[in-house]
Amino acid sequence: MRGWFRAITGGLRGWALCRLGQTREGIEALRHGIELMRKLGARILLPYHLHLLADVSVLLGQVEQGLAAVGEALALIEETGARVFESELRRLQAELLRMAGREEEALLSSLRPTPDSPPNPPRESPPGAAR
Fold first, then answer.
1. Taking 80 as the threshold, does the pLDDT of residue 86 lie above it?
2. Cβ distance 89 to 66 under 8 Å?
3. Is the pTM for the entire model greater than 0.70?
4. Which position among 40, 69, 72, 125 has the lowest Cβ density within 10 Å, counted as fewest Cβ atoms?
């Protein structure tokens, strides 16, 4: 149980430190938390921490690091089916691709539907309209 707690809080602490400007210590703590999660086999929680690494990568302009984190997280999401953070990961992916000057890829990435999104949501008729 302590290992799980250390992995989760270490990653969150690292992200917070980066946001406060202590990037060297923050990145180290975040990566350590991610490594602990990998060792513990926390495949469902790992995408969230990889999303934190991608978020920090945007902040620091580290495009390749961010895209690698997003790619790994999206692959885990496909494997596990736990899609809670997929929309945020797609947003970060598009932002990182824009930073790299890959505008068309960024647009396509942000428009990609998730498997649970309806193809054409039903439209409601305005109140009082004939049915």
1. yes
2. no
3. yes
4. 125
- Are 36 and 7 in contact by the 8 Å Cβ rule? The answer is yes
- CA 17 vs. chain centroid, Å, equals 18
Mean predicted lDDT score pLDDT of the chain: 86
Residue type, 75: A
Tell me the per-residue pLDDT of 101-129, one tens digit each, with 9 for 90 and over. 888 887 777 666 555 554 445 556 556 65
Average pLDDT over residues 84-108: 89
- The single-letter code of the amino acid at 101 is G
Q: Name the band, by pLDDT with cuts 50, 70 and 90, for residue 99.
A: very high
Q: Which of 87, 13, 26, 108 is nearest to 59 (CA)?
A: 26
